[in-house]
Structure formats: structure tokens, C-alpha cells
User: Which sequence fits this backbone?
């Protein structure tokens, strides 16, 4: 039971961080399909940063800076150059996947996996106690519920969060009371960049301490699906991401137990099948994508 819980937390934590980034962008009025690219930039930057600087703090700052910079680039292309946000987001994903491969090739003259001497600090080291299998989890797992609460608090209980939501849902009304929707979107995307950096860092440095090409394997798109499944709500999207993580963890356990009897390809496809089912169910129950909060200008 504990091993299954650990597997769920390992699978779910990176996904939840990136999902929260998608929620912020969605509520501010941007369909961020660049989550996959931002996530892999965070993964690559953390591992390469640790190898180059031998400091977790400096590596994490580099990861956050690069993800925020890429998010600002997305904002500039969408807001200033008036590009289609979906096409721009997919372009950012391509930039992240291709850019990280190019960076690894340029730095190490090889496309092989990069291994860091250490990763994100573990709970065992934080509490200086034997926590069993839970002690092998990173401190980012412990901070994850706090991040969910902070995003919910920002969006539902603060003036800034309400202005951000109004910028996505009622941008014309927001402008009439002096709120600049473009600045709100910039802020939402920048905060999302930090969350994507944390998600990517947790994926690469939480338990594996390695970076390999395309290691996100579609998790950014799963996070986007969780945003749709959760209708743009921080808590709803987190629950959807957790559901995908549970399916993923059960798939891994099933491979260990029934690997010889059931096709591994089918078991590995379970999270993605659950994602497709979740999006279909969400749109079926809510009457289409137009019901999702925070996309008013795009619908118009």
C-alpha cells in the first residue's frame, strides 16, 4: 500500500505542478499548449545546472529563469504579435523539445542521458528521521499541497486573482474598471513558468536525477487535459491530475504483477487512455469547451 502511495506521489507531483500552471493561464484567458515544452526546459535546466554549478539552489534558479523567459516569449507572441495561442503554445513545445536536445548535444557532444550527482533534497534529509519509503520522496512532494492551496487562494480569495480571472472570463468588463488583461496574462504565464520549472525539476531530479530527451513523454498535454477536466478550477484540475497519476501508478504496478500476461504497451497506454476518456467525459457533462472558465476572448 505504501509503495503504491509513493508511486502515485512520484507520478502525480510533477503533473500537478504543471496543471496549476495551466489553470493560471486558463483563468487569465490563454490556452497554454506550451506546458510540455516548459516542463522539459525545467527538467533539462535543473540537471544540467546541477552538473555545471554543483548547487541545487543555483540550478533551480536557472530552471525558473528559463521557464519564465519562455513564458514571457509566449505572452509576447500571443499578445503583441497577435498569434493564435494554440499554435504559439505548440511552437513553444517544439522549442522546448528541440532546444533541450540541441543544448545537450552542444554541451556534451552527445545525445546520451545526463546524470546529476544529486537531485532535489529528500524528506529523510529534511526531517533527519527514518520515514520508510516516504523518506525517499523529494521536498517538492511535501510542498505540492501548499502550492495547490496557494493557487486556489490566489484565484478565489484575492483581489489580484479575481482580476486575473476577470481578464479571462470578462476582459471587456475588466478593461472598463481599469484592469489591463494583457498584464494579467503576463503575470499568470510568468507564475506558471515557475510552476512548470518545479514540475520539470521534480520529474528529473525528484527520484531519477537524470535527464533524457523527451522524458516528459506527453505529461504537459496530460496537464492541459487535467485543466479541461477540472474546468479551470485549481482544486478540480488537481483532482483530475491526481486521477491520471493514480491510473499511471496502477499501470506500473500492473506491469510488475501481470507483465507476462498483459501487453506492456497496453499497460503503458493506460494514463493516456484515461486522459482521453477524462476530456471526453468533461466536455460531455459540461456541454463543450465553451463552458470552461477563462476563455472569453478566444470564444469571441
Assistant:
Amino acid at each position: 500500500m505504501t509503495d503504491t502511495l509513493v508511486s502515485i506521489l512520484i507520478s502525480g507531483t510533477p503533473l500537478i505542478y504543471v496543471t496549476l500552471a495551466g489553470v493560471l493561464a486558463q483563468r487569465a484567458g490563454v490556452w497554454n499548449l506550451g506546458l510540455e515544452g516548459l516542463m522539459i526546459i525545467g527538467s533539462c535546466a535543473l540537471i544540467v545546472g546541477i552538473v555545471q554549478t554543483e548547487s541545487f539552489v543555483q540550478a533551480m534558479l536557472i530552471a525558473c529563469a528559463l521557464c519564465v523567459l519562455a513564458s514571457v516569449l509566449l505572452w509576447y507572441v500571443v499578445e503583441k504579435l497577435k498569434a493564435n495561442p494554440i499554435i504559439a503554445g505548440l511552437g513553444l513545445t517544439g522549442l522546448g523539445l528541440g532546444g533541450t536536445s540541441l543544448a545537450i548535444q552542444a554541451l556534451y557532444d552527445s545525445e546520451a542521458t545526463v546524470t546529476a550527482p544529486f537531485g532535489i533534497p529528500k524528506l529523510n534529509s529534511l526531517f533527519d528521521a527514518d520515514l520508510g519509503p516516504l523518506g525517499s520522496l523529494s521536498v517538492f512532494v511535501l510542498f505540492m499541497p501548499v502550492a495547490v492551496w496557494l493557487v486556489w487562494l490566489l484565484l478565489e480569495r484575492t483581489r489580484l486573482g479575481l482580476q486575473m480571472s476577470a481578464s479571462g472570463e470578462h476582459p471587456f468588463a475588466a478593461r472598463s474598471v481599469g484592469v489591463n488583461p494583457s498584464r494579467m496574462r503576463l503575470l499568470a504565464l510568468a507564475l506558471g513558468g515557475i510552476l512548470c520549472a518545479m514540475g520539470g525539476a521534480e520529474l528529473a531530479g525528484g527520484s531519477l536525477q537524470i535527464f533524457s530527451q523527451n522524458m516528459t513523454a506527453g505529461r504537459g498535454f496530460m496537464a492541459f487535459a487535467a485543466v479541461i477536466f477540472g474546468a479551470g478550477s485549481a482544486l478540480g484540475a488537481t483532482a483530475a491530475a491526481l486521477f491520471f497519476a493514480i491510473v499511471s501508478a496502477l499501470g506500473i504496478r500492473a506491469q510488475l504483477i501481470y507483465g507476462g500476461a498483459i501487453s506492456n504497451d497496453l499497460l503503458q497506454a493506460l494514463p493516456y487512455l484515461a486522459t482521453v476518456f477524462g476530456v471526453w467525459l468533461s466536455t460531455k457533462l459540461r456541454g463543450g469547451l465553451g463552458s470552461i472558465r477563462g476563455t472569453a476572448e478566444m470564444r469571441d
Summary: The radius of gyration is 19 Å. The first helix runs from residue 2 to 28. The chain has a mean pLDDT of 87.
